[in-house]
Amino acid sequence: MTQELEADIRCVFAEVWTQDHATEVPALEPDTVLLDTGLDSLGFAIFVSSLDEALGFDPFTLSEDAFYPQTFAEFVAFYERYRPKG
Amino acid sequence: MTPLRRQIAAGDGAHPILGDLDAEALRSGGLADGFGSDARVALCLRDPVQLVRAIAALDGRVEAMLLLSHALAPDTVAVLIERAGMDRLISDRDDLGGAEPVGALFGADRDEGDVPTRWLMTTSGTTGIPKIVPHTLASLSRSVLRLTAGAAPVWGLLYDPTRFAGMQVTLQALIGGGTLVPVDTGAPLAAQVAELACAGVTHLSATPTLWRRLLMVPGVRDLPLRQVTLGGEIVDSATLRTLRAAFPAARITHIYASTEAGVGFSVTDEQAGFPASYLEAAPGGVRMKCVDDILWLRPPVGAEGPVDAEGYISSGDRIRIEGDRALFLGRENGMMNIGGVKVYPEAVEAVVQDVPGVALVQVSGKKSPVTGALVMARVQLEDGADPQAVKRAIIDTCRARLEREAVPAIVRFVDGFTTNAAGKLVRTKGV
To answer: Which among B39, B42, B20, B41 has a CA at the least distance from the CA of B29?
Structure first.
């Protein structure tokens, strides 16, 4: 299931990126630091909000953890952990 | 009022306060002949070292100084100078007409001058011309703490020092004692964090949006922070919890302030909102009351702007009391705060309404865990309009006519809206 979730996240990232940038969508490797991709605060906020619309949940709001994902792998794992089960 | 130069803290003598400026240089810096006690001087300086040198030389010696952000457009600078009635402009920019270089400001060392200088600040609203808000050194430095014991703090400056929040940090370092480290805020965030780490920054103030972003930079947790300060936006408990885990040794303070009322109060119990008991007795000499769900403040030095019969000024912030806690709900006028940028729903609605295919539109804030809020547009289509084409047109039109933060991040199509007896859209309260 993680692979499917990861594919969804990549897809939304590409959509948000192309809305705001004329350049090619940056490659997302597991150790890519999300802040280094060129998405700023507003871009990141739109990314999280678009994921909420697409997936139906927002782990940043659900999370009780004192944790912010830094790399793409951490980001996917963060979404996997809060994905509604069943 | 003691002029700024006589309030500069001695520090430890070993380290300059800012750049190559030490306490002695700031205390003895003189003003050039030709700047009399009736001079009204506008400052628009990119270099924070020159800005600090300039305010120390001007305070107590001239009638007024207007502090302008170096990021303002030339036309805006001209309008503000005209409105504030300034007769000199000192700038290190080369695109401002009539500007004199910063060197024209400074003269031989001396310590005369005891005039009550007006500090004219501007609000940080990004739509239209900023509002000019008069202050004095007394009203700006009201909440500065004079430090006595312990290692001198190293303050990282992530704010524009001409804005209220940035001036708070600057005056804290100048008067309270410590070192000020201005950061190149145009650089990538990882580079800014590296700059802070390299300078050994121990005290840092930022908006919740910027803190959330900083928390995503690898290595940020290694900053030896003893003080984490938040301000400028509503603070939520998740951000406070994350900061606590990231900086276990730091004191975490969130400050409630506005350019008009100055610093209202600070909260250090690491929970969102503020203790409801502050409405009876707030710390720091400010008085507060809640009228029709709106927070009103009475600062000890006096508020600028329209006050009520008892001297209170409306904050425009809606609050709700839950048990022993007062929580912030958003702005009375529906204004949204998108990562620190003020956006008015009416301004966005006016643009969206012009897009062909749009019958009716209502703009509100949608909560965002990253920027506090995002702009959401609910749109009722004209008969036969294609939703995808209209959505694209809405975004393109808004991009061309509004600033980036005001462009709707979410466009939802609805079948209809509730209107009130006057035929106006019923506005849902923004976040």
So the answer is: B20
Angle, in degrees to the nearest 10, between helices A41-55 and A2-20: 130
Q: Over the stretch B326-374, which tens digit does the pLDDT of each residue have?
A: 999 888 888 898 887 889 898 899 899 989 999 889 999 998 988 889 9
Q: How many CB atoms lie under 10 A from the CB of residue B346?
A: 11
Chain A to chain B Cβ contacts (< 8 Å): 72
- Whether B163 contacts B185, CB under 8 Å: no
Q: Which residue of A has its CA nearest to B338?
A: A42
Please state the three-class secondary structure of chain B as a single string: CCCHHHHCCCCCCCCCCECCECHHHHHHCEECCCCCCCCEEEEECCCHHHHHHHHHHHCCCCCEEEECCCCCCHHHHHHHHHHHCCCEEEECCCCCCCCECHHHHEECCCCCCCCCCEEEEECCCCCCCCCEEEECHHHHCCCCCCCCCCCCCEEEECCCCCCHHHHHHHHHHHHHCCEEEECCCCCCHHHHHHHHHHCCCCEEEECHHHHHHHCCCCCHHHCCCCEEEEECCCCCHHHHHHHHHHCCCCEEEEEEEECCCEEEEEECCCCCCEEHHHHCCCHHHCEEEEECCEEEEECCCCCCCCCCCCCCEEEEEEEEEECCEEEEEEECCCCEEECCEEECHHHHHHHHHCCCCEEEEEEEEEEECCCEEEEEEEEEECCCCCHHHHHHHHHHHHHHHCCHHHCCCEEEECCCCCECCCCCECCCCCC
Is the CB of residue B134 less than 8 Å from the CB of residue B140?
A: no
Residue B238 reports pLDDT greater than 80: yes
- What does the pLDDT look like over A4-47, one tens digit per residue? 999 999 999 999 998 888 899 999 999 999 888 888 889 999 99
Interface of B with A in 312-351 (CB under 8 A): 338-339
Residue B199 is predicted with a pLDDT of 94
Taking CB atoms and an 8 Å limit, are A48 and B370 in contact across chains? yes
Of B72, B82, B178, B168, the closest CA to residue B128 belongs to B72
Q: Which residues of A touch B246 (CB under 8 A)?
A: 66
How many Å apart are CA B308 and CA B302, to the nearest integer?
12
The CA distance from B178 to B118, in Å, is: 25
Identify the three-state secondary structure at position A81.
Answer: helix
Give the chain B residue whose CA is nearest to the CA of A53: B410
Strands of B372-381's sheet in order across: B358-368, B372-381, B410-413
